[in-house]
Design goal:
By secondary structure, the chain is α/β, with parallel strands linked by helices. 29% of the residues lie in helices and 17% in strands. The protein binds iron/sulfur cluster (2 copies).
Length: 917
Amino acid sequence: MRLTIDACLVELPEGATVLDGVNRLAIPLPQLCKDPDRAPLGACRTCLVHVEGQRGLSAACHLPAREGMVVSTAHPDAVRVRRGVLDLTLSMLTPAKGESRGGSVPPLHNGFGALGDAAARHGLGEPGFAPLHRFDVDASKSFFVLDREACILCGRCTVACDEVQQIGAIALLGRGHTTRVGVFGDGPMAASVCTSCGQCVATCPTGALATKEGPATIVRRVETTCPYCGVGCGLVVPVREDGRLALMADDVPSNKSSLGTLCVKGRFGTGFVHSRDRITHPMVRRDGRWVRASWDAALETAAEGLAKHRGRFGALASAKATNEDGYAIQKLCRVVMQTNDVDHCTRLCHSPSVEAMLACMGSGATSNSYQDYEEAGCLMVVGADASANHPVIAIRFRRAVSRGARLIVVNPKRVDLCDQADLWLQPRPGTDVALFNAMARVILDEDLANLAFVRTRTAGFEDWRASLRPFTLEYAERMTDVPASDIAQAARWYARPPRLGDPGDGPRSTPPAGSCLIWGMGITQHTNGIHNAHALLNLSLVAGQMGFPGSGISPLRGQNNVQGCGDAGCIPTNLPGYQTYDPDTLAKFAAGWGVRPPGTTGRVVTEMIEGCLDGQTRAMYVVGENPLLSEPDLHHAEKAIDQLDFLVVQDLFMHETAERAHVFLPAAAFAEKDGTYTNSERRVQRVRQALPAPGEARPDWWITCELAKRVARRLTLDVGGQFDYAGPAEIFDEMARLTPFLTGLSHARLDREGGIQWPCPTPDHPGTRYLYAESFPTGRARFIPALQTAEAAELPDHDFPFILNTGRLLYHWHGGTLTRRVQGLLELAPRLEVAIHPSDARRLGVDTGARIRVASRRGELTGHAHVTEAVRPGAVFVPFVKLEESAANFLTNSAFDPSSKIPEYKVCAVRVERVRE
Ligand code: SF4
Ligand code: SF4
């Protein structure tokens, strides 16, 4: 459609509004209640325009654009009425104490944001009406304030909270002149369900909701990717005049890679880059003390120590660093140190998922996209507390539920998602195989299987079916404590989900509606982890729930780039792109790298750490990881690391592992470098430099390449030239050349088109939304029988009668190395809380807040009781984050899954006692 606005011609697509045209032409028309990402509310009436041939004025946000329309924003009637509306709106505000509103509106309340600008443009000064009510400022949240006297009741914040975040913490309370934004019960925001996501702050047009940061001039905004979790939300980081990141990052307006919103960590949690304890110059240890060194001296010392220990060396790469950083590390290991002993934190989170998926389907990645969660008829979320760990994905789950999808939550702990669930299965920890195998039996017994899929796309069905014989519903109920009827219902919904929009449980139509199977570390961090993962995959195969929109399998990846770190080759079992050590592939890499990489599987991180004790590991290169917080049984891990002859740590901070190093190499943070991350849905996205790195800190890829050249020289290897890169784009190009599923990607293409999902084999390939539409990399997917080997390596007994469960918190990231350095996050979760059931708390004589001691056979910690029915009687939950010098991994068991080598973080036996003060 072509229409004219203020004498300018504009072309708009079907369905557009006149306001879309106004904004496309960048005409400064007030639009106070219109969130650019939301449907119009039509509440503020400040976007009134005149349309030729029409009587009266229309709100542009609600006015459909039509071919040939002639619109004027500057028509005298429109300006006059808008001015009146703005004057009335201004009268709702109360001037800040001691300030007068003479002349123009700014600087009251920091200019009242968009309202201040609009009022000034309409020549408004003193309001025509006096305010009738005074309201207190709510400053109870750590990052922002709610100043109701700067509020015009446009409702944008309540829509943001309710519809965008699907939280509903705030609403318009009261009536008439006392109408105000508030929380349930009219108490302080801090006492509400508000998660501090900042969506309301980002959308408020007047500054009534504003950060606690003082006024600052923003000199540039840089689009990059969130450094926290594997959701991989797009961030726009604003850089202030003083060279610091502003407190609040913005979201990237919703597009294919982002929901257009953020959680509290992405929105407010990037300030760790300015932490005063950043290490900003290289250091070497001399006579037991740290000494500042030049880059050359530090790298030479590091190179000497590593070269000396070639053959007894291992590297730990960082799932927080970029793909390019990871690629450089594994190349150093394979080309220079001639070892495949390189690993990263996937070992500690999803190695059973990756191993099981590789064995079953030939690919170790999530098969679908976030979009599929919203198109599914059933979501089964297993062992994942998405509201805490992947908050923006949890929003997608809530949106799916509000559209009618069934939500099944499987978790021994009552996680927030249980509030929206149709069915919550609460199995005893360690009994997952019995639960999933019994579900599979129901699917088969009730003829719910997709036998056409089984027949044409899978192998091993009959053997697997035979393996299910013992897993009757009665047996599963006995094992898991989950009622048989609930297990059966879950199986029915998963195998035959309702089509969205179908009422109730009516008959299912074809084509089948989709189900998504989503799981987290509650499944994998067990000695039975690989069997748990196979049991889930078998369910998806028998139901045929993959390869079409709204279906699929999703292990929710933890860290921001855990997918990419594995893709780049930082795993001992495979070369970049999960390519095997077969002769042809080794020859391909030999041609690319000038050196043939070793052809046998290397050691995983848990084996490298054990190797420190038996002498097989004498030197380690640890990049962006802190194993002395993330390893299980920390006293044991400390003993092991202390045996090393030589340790190089490359990081931002002097953390628990770095304190034991011989050389410290200071790295640039996410906002100080360029590169890419790959998120949980296989989407490769750009990371862009917004700030210079502080002091002498350098990007990880640069440090690793400089180190590699020096080690090569000391070993008289002629491979130094392999590490001469002009920048991360060149590293990416090499990785893409050698990795078939990335070959179509480059930094330049990602800059042009935004994030793209692999496989993307050619430059004109659009990327892949979901895998396995027609085939599997292995041809057919394989059913692999899953066994219930044992409930756990360590079960409660007389001395240690509780089961310990561990996990993460919304306000901290994993061990807290980054989030403990963000004051506002620390204020939201300042102390270590141990969740305990009321019946156990009563027996121990403790209330919420009481200090309690939790001890296992390996160590102990003290924390504060949080009495809650979220955990089962006989169980306690301790988060991974280290607070008040207490960390869950002093308690956890290093027993591991014999196949994937993942430690059993999720179950061990502990004793709980009250601390008498
Ligand atoms: S910060 Fe987020 S959760 Fe809290 S009121 Fe605002 S939108 Fe709602
Ligand atoms: S959901 Fe994850 S990626 Fe998104 S803002 Fe939060 S921490 Fe960052």
